[in-house]
Design goal:
The complex is a heterodimer of chains A (about 850) and B (about 240).
Chain A lengths: L1 H14 L1 H29 L12 E11 L2 E7 L6 H8 L5 E15 L2 E10 L3 H4 L4 E4 L10 E5 H8 L8 E4 L3 E9 L8 E2 L6 E2 L2 E4 L2 H5 L22 E5 L8 H15 L6 E8 L3 H9 L10 H27 L1 H9 L4 H38 L5 H4 L2 H28 L2 H5 L10 H35 L7 E4 L3 H4 L3 H8 L5 E7 L9 E6 L9 E8 L3 H5 L3 E4 L22 E5 H6 L5 H4 L3 E4 L10 E9 L14 E5 L6 E6 L4 H15 L7 E3 H44 L1 H9 L4 H35 L11 H26 L3 H5 L3
Parallel strand pairs in A: 4-11, 6-8, 9-10, 17-22, 19-21
Antiparallel strand pairs in A: 1-2, 1-12, 1-13, 3-4, 3-7, 3-12, 5-8, 6-11, 7-8, 14-23, 14-24, 15-23, 16-17, 16-20, 18-21, 19-22, 20-21
Helix pairs in contact in A: 1-2, 1-11, 2-9, 2-11, 2-13, 2-22, 9-13, 9-15, 9-22, 11-13, 15-22, 15-24, 15-25, 22-25, 24-25
Chain B lengths: L1 E12 L2 E13 L4 E5 L6 H8 L7 E6 L2 E2 L5 H11 E5 L10 H11 L4 H14 L15 H13 L5 E5 L7 H16 L3 E5 L3 H4 L4 E6 L2 E7 L12
Parallel strand pairs in B: 3-8, 3-9, 6-7, 7-8
Antiparallel strand pairs in B: 1-2, 1-4, 4-5, 9-10
Classes of the chains: A alpha+beta (about 850), B alpha/beta (about 240).
Chain lengths: ~850, ~240
């Protein structure tokens, strides 16, 4: 019997080969999208951290900060307060190890007569217990037990010393204190969250002991205490790792429970609200990515799969739709089979075999498609897919399951319905339907709605991406050079650098800021219009800048004035300064959010900066000097799209230089020459702000392009199915058309009738899809600090496009039907 | 073999009820050849559909071999149908995707007959209808007469007790029609009960009994003197 089913299925595919091909391609395309998404995300998130021997038991702590129970200020980054480690060890003594790591950034290091800026991190001794770093020289065991021990990577040792045989040698850190190299380590596993490469969550060339921080006299990060063991709740800047014991006497559940109770147990009331969690070590990169995009509802890395689900659903709908249509064509055959003795199980089995064969053929196409697509995607995005990812049995098991589900789900409906129809009804093919009349209409409508949704969302995303690109790449503006050197650490007065730079006419402006442009996130603070702590506070990002910042970045002052030297505007100091009220500039977005409908209304007003770490402290007043245009160079908030600016001329450490765009080379030569004069032994690290934008935008752009690509695929699948349905529906009406023609209908009238009938579900489907598309578009827009205006254009274009496609598909068939001789179609019955 | 008592079959569409069969009572003995005649719309095909268990009566009794099957569910009817009945339709109703051999083999497949037995039986009936050389052809490659012979072969391959033929010669020319009637005659001689709907008075005379219908009722029943029921009637 199986042979019969298979033979019947193959012959049926051949007879209705157009429909079978549409189904096959739709299925295969949907699965290829799924596999490609899987591989893409796998390459993004592939974590080399799994190569650490304890990785299965190691977790990184996360922390969310809330100013009120309903206002999340900072999403769950995998960094926590410095005091958490100490208290956690006390709360869970059974933990095998708890260790912190603090990123100190690029620090000037001298070794003899050689200097270099190396990336430094300070860690607790247990860090080496958690992570089995590979020593090439020296002994790791007690390398960081002493405050002045250090570990250096082989690559950094080579850079600094020209050899890796450096155990026992001294390093002078920041011209302040000396450490001794206790060990040299090999490169870290590729794909790990730690290492020497840019973009690492924990970037280091040199590891120092956390004790050593006390000898450094603090760092230049905001609010860090000189003593890292002092708790400072809400100051989530420490990576903190926890190693669960191998004997499971402390479990993950217990750890999570303890973390949930942690704030109640240790953090005084009226402090900022902290919510702690733990993520597996292998998920640190993922956790950072999710936090950067704001932890909004649907994780960023899940959204491509949601799109895949939509694509798979469309493929499934396609299949069901076309199977239903095909089933009615084969109704007479089914009726005869029932007459001849086929039972319901016989018929269902027959359909399932057909579905399985189609699914199998789709699998072959998927293999072929993946083999072709993967290298192409790899080349396009430089993702370096691992062959091992392609060979994961779990992936292909899932693919087979998906194929089976789609083909069975899609084929089961007509099978079940037709199997139940009485033989005599099946034999009257003109009247039989596979199920209720509204089902095909709904299936077609849902497909059109899905296609419309995808098209609108793709267009909205493209609009937003254009805005983002315009933010970053502005060829008609003077470029800004970012000097990635810490002047304070090098002992170079900023004003000296500035004055020297401004000697050259190609240098248009010089300023500085606390952090480079295009960094994700920032110093989230809460501001209010009043002192009253119970009034609604707004989360905004505080940017510490120097004079001439807005001129350097080309941010227009809309009202009031920027900081200037003549007025000696009071700078902002964390410790309150001399009691003066610091000056502040707001961007347009914050002014509007604070209730000022025009920028002028905000000038000379006072806003209040809430003390984030301790709600019992009074809010600090800030005097609004002016309002600037939106457009501070930042891609992601998260959780906010507004900025305010305070002046801290002594605390800013990223010099920014605006060069005349007509003479960039000369401007760069001057910068290099000035630097050489001021710091002859320190090679200058500088980048264009555009380059920083590209780095920030790159990963996101890849994800965005993948989403857009998936949307396009889904759209194609939906349209293929629609064309198949249009052909079929029109064919079914041939007899009716023949009768109408006999009664006098014109060809044009018939074509218009068919087009009109098919347009109705398209229009309704679009209207249904639009709110969902708008909502999805808004979710995407809310990730960014700059948002494109939502215009009706994408929605109108979606309607026009889907109508055009429907008309093309139906129109061709309608024209054929309308010109057919009535006798030929009426004769068939 | 078959007893119908007060069979009614009506169809309802938009509050309008149409009676296709109105209090039809009929008895068919084993081995009989019965012809059903009447004008279009009189209910002959509906009667055949009810007798063939491919449609259910609205009310009344249908006794098949002594059992009232009028209210049986489809799952029971299909079992009875495939073992006891054979069907021949005016428009042949062969399955286009299957070859001649496969079309004839299909009822045996649904009865889970082993392969070797299927093969032997299909060859036997192919020889009976003289279509062995065409066993691999598809229906589209055959003439109307040949297609109907395949349908006849398919109807008899399971050795049914009752064959229901709905205008078996309606789409055939005279010569082919005569061929098909000849086959039916032969089957009846061998003891198969045959119930045939026909418009042809000439073909109707081949039956032992002619049932005339009008407006959903049996108008008259006449016995044809031409033939008597065969002695080897199939119980």
């Amino acid at each position: 019997m199986l042979k019969h089913y298979i033979v019947q299925a193959l012959r049926s595919f051949w007879r209705f080969r157009a429909t079978a091909l549409v189904n096959l391609l739709g299925l295969a395309l949907a699965i290829v999208c799924f596999v490609a998404t899987y591989l893409f995300l796998d390459s993004l998130l592939r974590s080399g951290d799994t190569q650490f021997k304890n990785s299965g038991r190691t977790y990184a702590l996360t922390e969310e900060l809330w100013t009120t129970p309903t206002n999340k200020m900072i999403p769950a980054f995998p960094t926590v307060d410095p005091g958490v480690a100490k208290y956690l060890r006390a709360d869970l003594p059974g933990l095998e190890a708890v260790a912190r790591a603090l990123r100190l950034g690029a620090v000037p290091i001298a070794a003899g007569n050689r200097n270099a800026d190396l990336w430094v991190a300070a860690v607790d001794p247990d860090f080496l217990r958690i992570f089995d770093l590979k020593p090439l020289e020296g002994d790791l065991r007690d390398a960081l037990s002493a405050a002045h021990g250090a570990i250096i990577t082989a690559q950094a040792a080579q850079q600094l010393f020209g050899t890796r045989d450096v155990v026992g040698k001294a390093l002078l850190i920041q011209n302040k204190a000396q450490v001794t190299i206790a060990a040299v380590i090999d490169s870290l596993p590729p794909g790990s969250h730690m290492g020497s490469d840019p973009g690492m969550t924990l970037r280091f060339d040199v590891l120092l002991s956390m004790e050593f921080l006390k000898t450094l006299g603090g760092t230049d990060f905001i609010g860090l205490p000189a003593d890292p063991d002092q708790p400072q709740w809400g100051n989530d800047t420490y990576l903190t790792y926890v190693l669960l014991p191998a004997d499971r006497r402390v479990t993950l559940t217990q750890l999570q429970q303890t973390l949930r109770e942690f704030p109640t147990r240790h953090i005084p009331k009226d402090q900022i609200i902290c919510v702690y969690g733990a993520v597996p070590l292998a998920h640190i990169k993922l956790a950072t990515l999710e936090a950067v995009t704001g932890n909004r509802g649907i994780p960023l890395t899940v959204s491509p799969f949601l799109l895949d689900v939509l694509i798979l659903a469309i493929a499934c709908l396609n299949y069901a739709n076309l199977s239903v249509a095909l089933a009615t064509t084969r109704a007479r055959e089914i009726g005869m089979r029932k007459v001849l003795g086929a039972s319901q199980p016989h018929l269902i089995r027959q359909y399932l075999v057909e579905a399985a064969l189609l699914g199998g053929a789709a699998l072959v196409l998927v293999l072929l498609g993946t083999a072709l697509a993967v290298p192409a995607i790899d080349r396009a995005f430089g993702l370096q897919f691992a062959v091992s990812s392609l060979l994961q049995p779990g992936l292909w098991g899932l693919v087979i399951l998906l194929l089976a589900f789609i083909s069975l789900a899609g084929g089961a409906y007509p099978a079940l319905v037709l199997a139940r129809i009485r033989p005599v009804e099946s034999l009257r093919a003109a009247t039989v339907r596979a199920g209720p009349r509204f089902v095909p209409t709904i299936l077609v409508g849902v497909q059109f709605a899905a296609a419309s949704f995808l098209l609108v969302v793709s267009l909205l995303m493209s609009a937003e991406n254009r805005v983002l690109q315009q933010m970053g790449v502005r060829p008609d503006h003077d470029p800004v050079v970012v000097i990635s050197e810490n002047l304070t650490q090098l002992g170079i007065p900023f004003e000296t650098l500035r004055n020297e730079l401004l000697r050259d006419p190609n240098i248009k402006a010089v300023s500085a800021s606390m952090s480079p442009p295009w960094q994700s996130g920032g110093a989230h603070q809460t501001v209010r219009r009043t002192r009253d702590a119970s009034s609604t506070g707004l989360v905004s990002i505080m940017n510490q800048v120097d004079y001439d910042f807005f001129q350097t970045f080309g941010l227009q002052t809309l009202a009031g004035r920027p900081f200037d030297r003549q007025h000696a505007d009071p700078p902002f100091k964390w410790d309150g300064g001399k009691g003066e009220v610091p000056a502040v500039l707001l961007d347009r977005a914050l002014a509007r959010q604070l209730g000022w409908s025009s920028p002028e209304q905000a000038v000379n007003q006072t806003i209040y900066l809430a003390a984030p770490w301790d709600n019992t402290l009074p809010a600090r007043p800030l005097h609004v000097l002016g309002v600037v245009a939106d457009g501070y160079p930042r891609l992601f908030g998260p959780n906010t799209s507004s900025n305010f600016f305070v002046m801290t001329p002594l605390g800013t450490n990223v010099p920014l230089v605006r060069i005349d765009r007509n003479n960039i080379a000369a401007g760069l030569r001057h910068i290099d020459a000035v630097w050489k004069g001021l710091a002859p032994k320190v090679p200058l690290r500088r980048e264009f702000a555009d380059e920083l934008f590209n780095e920030a935008y790159e990963s996101f752009a890849t994800v965005s392009t993948v989403l857009a690509g998936l949307s396009a695929f889904a759209f194609v699948i939906a349209i293929m199915g629609l064309i198949g349905m249009a052909i079929h529906i029109t064919s079914r009406r041939m007899r009716e058309i023949g009768i109408r023609k006999t009664l006098g209908a014109s060809a044009r009238g018939l074509v218009w009738m068919l087009l009109r009938d098919f347009s109705r579900p398209v229009l309704i489907a679009n209207i249904i899809a639009w709110p969902f598309a708008y909502f999805a578009g808004q979710m995407y827009y809310n990730l960014f600090t700059q948002r494109a205006p939502v215009s009706p254009a994408p929605f109108v274009l979606s309607l026009v496009t889907t109508l055009a496609i429907a008309w093309l598909a139906v129109g061709a068939q309608a024209l054929r039907a309308a010109t057919v001789k009535p006798a030929s179609v009426l004769h068939l019955d | 073999m078959i007893t119908l008592r007060n069979i009614k079959k009506s169809y309802r569409a938009d509050n309008i009820e149409t009676a296709a069969l109105d209090n039809v009572s009929l008895q068919v003995d084993p081995g009989e050849f019965v012809a059903v005649m009447g004008p279009s719309g009189c209910g002959k095909s509906t009667l055949l559909n009810v007798l063939g268990m491919i449609d259910s009566p609205t009310s009344g009794e249908y006794l098949f071999c002594g059992e009232d099957i009028a209210r049986w569910p489809e799952s029971r009817l299909v079992e009875l149908r495939k073992r006891q009945l054979g069907f021949i339709f005016q428009s042949f109703n062969l399955i286009d995707d299957l070859t001649v051999y496969e079309n004839i083999e299909l009822p045996l497949l649904y009865q889970d007959v082993p392969r070797a037995q299927r093969k032997a039986r299909v060859r036997e009936v192919l020889e009976l209808v003289d279509l062995l050389p065409r066993s691999r052809h598809k229906p589209a490659q055959l003439s109307g007469g040949q297609q109907q012979r395949v349908a006849v072969a398919r109807a008899v391959v399971t050795d049914p007790k009752l064959i229901l033929a709905d205008e078996p010669t309606g789409n055939l020319d005279t010569h082919n029609g005569e061929e098909v009637m000849g086959m039916l005659d032969t089957l009846n001689q061998q003891g198969t009960t045959i119930l045939m709907v026909t418009h042809s008075p000439e073909h109707a005379t081949r039956a032992q009994r002619i049932v005339s219908m009008l407006d959903g009722r049996i108008a008259t029943q006449t016995h044809s003197p031409r033939r008597a029921a065969p002695e080897a009637a199939r119980a």
